[in-house]
Amino acid sequence: MRLAYIAQGKLHLLEESGKARQIDSHFAQDFINRSIQIAERRAWKSSGGSGMWAGTNLWNTKEDFDPARISISFSDVTPGGKDGEIVYCLQTERVSGMFTYRLEDNHETRLFHKNDFPLGDICRRPGEDALVASLHKPSGVSHLILFREDSPHYREITEGDSRDEAPHWSRHDSAKLLYQSSGVGRNGEGFCTGYGPSALMQIDLASGELTTLLEDERRDLLQPRTNAAGDLFFIRRPWQAEPWRHGYFLRALKDFVLFPFRVVRAFIDYLNVFSMVYSRKPLKTAGGPPRPEQDLGRAILRGRYLNVQKALGRFQDKNDTPALVPRSWELVKRRADGSEEILARGVSAFDVGADGEIFYTNGTGIFRLQDGAHERVGRTWLIEKLVLL
After folding, report:
1. Is residue 19 part of a domain?
2. Which residues, 6 or more positions from 245, have their beta carbon under 8 angstroms from its beta carbon?
3. Which one of 39, 114, 183, 198 is separated from 69 by 20 to 30 angstroms, measured CA to CA?
4. Facing residues of 222 across strands?
């Protein structure tokens, strides 16, 4: 067992021994170091303000920027074409880059970078150096593209007013590609207002035939995967027409009821800070288990806003792994005869090996599912994706 996962925009490797280590991009760190040096040399220019006339560098960062605010994150990862190699994407606000990385000697190679090229859900075609990925566009749609890892040139293999994501090559026929697709809803001005339920699709690249594998008008079907036996695995969750407005009335009512208590708490916090400044003694004592240092508040995962603070409320022990998604997010196994089995609940991402080995995450813990037993093999905060290597 060896897998890679992305958590809070950082890439990690979970070894067979169970130890996890973070993978750092040398290119990203060199870029940050060069940016800091350039900012220090040109500090006298920014003192007068460069405004709209400031230049930009490779990653579209203004010359008078604050280097401490540079944000370069890993957007996706997939196994490489050789053993012990992975391919990943680095993403900034405007630019995407693709890299290969050898795990044995930590050697990184840049394949290409492009402006306004936000890639996600990359997947390698078995036995080839061809990759498929989801290319997100400003209009709210995303299409699947096919390209070689040594070239930024690509061709789109899906089209239409839809959001096509999570591609996976069928383990029975490498010419067939599975993915999730949802229609885009627009208003009279043409602006995106929401997405329809995600359905599981299959496209045959040899014939161009498009097939709907599974759809449900009341539920999203996400992240299709297959094993060598021909079973189909996916995540099923209730569909929300406008997920950012879900529970708006209840939240507004809750805010109204709790307003007086929050005012009192704010006043106590103010007095506590005042006491710490002048007497160096707090008015209230800290308690409870240690929690993640970063105040995440709310996060977006697979198009849904997650209430991370609610998950923090279930954080009872330093070794806890509270689910960041509801139990209604189900990992489902669908056999060739059409029968279904719910393998796990509260699943935000997963991957399946050719031999049927299953790993999944609830957002804070990584679990192995084998013979009906759920074994935790890792833990961290806000896991976005995992992939078997």
Report:
1. yes
2. none
3. 114
4. 235
Contact 385, 77 (CB under 8 A): yes
Q: What mean pLDDT do residues 312-316 have?
A: 64
| φ and ψ of 372, to 5 deg | 80, -5
User: What confidence tens digit (pLDDT) does each residue in 209-259 have?
Assistant: 999 999 999 999 999 999 988 899 999 999 987 655 555 556 677 777 878
State the Cα–Cα distance between residues 98 and 75, nearest whole angstrom. Answer: 10
Is the Cβ–Cβ distance between 307 and 317 less than 8 Å?
no
**Helix, strand or coil, per DSSP, at residue 35:** helix
Do strands 330-334 and 340-345 pair parallel, antiparallel, or not at all (unpaired)? antiparallel
What's the CA gap between 381 and 379, in Å, rounded?
7
pLDDT at 124 over 60: yes
d(CA 178, CA 203): 7
pLDDT 10s digits, 125-142: 887 888 999 999 888 899
* Residue 389 placed within a domain: no
CA 243 to chain CA centroid, nearest Å? 17
The boundaries of the domain holding residue 69 are 8-117
CA 93 to chain centroid:
16
Number of separate domains in the chain: 1
Q: C-alpha distances in angstroms, 222 versus 74, 163, 330, 335?
A: 21, 12, 10, 16
Take residue 359 and report the two structure tokens written for it. 């790993």
On whether the CB atoms of residues 325 and 307 are closer than 8 A, the answer is no
Distance of alpha carbon 194 from alpha carbon 303, whole angstroms: 10
Cβ of 136: how many Cβ atoms within 10 Å?
Answer: 19
Whether 107 is in a domain gets the answer yes
Q: Which of left, alpha, beta for 94 (phi over 0: left; psi -120 to 50: alpha)?
A: alpha
Give the strand order in the sheet containing 95-102.
73-79, 85-91, 95-102, 107-115
Question: Do the domain assignments include residue 336?
Answer: no
Distance CA 119, CA 75 (A): 7
**What is the DSSP code string of 236-272?**
EEE--SSGGGTTHHHHHHHHHHHHHHHHHHHHHHHHH
Contact status, residue 269 vs residue 276, Cβ threshold 8 Å: no
Rounded Cα distance, 332 and 232, in Å: 8
Cβ-proximal residues to 58 (8 Å cutoff; 6+ apart), any chain: 31, 95, 113
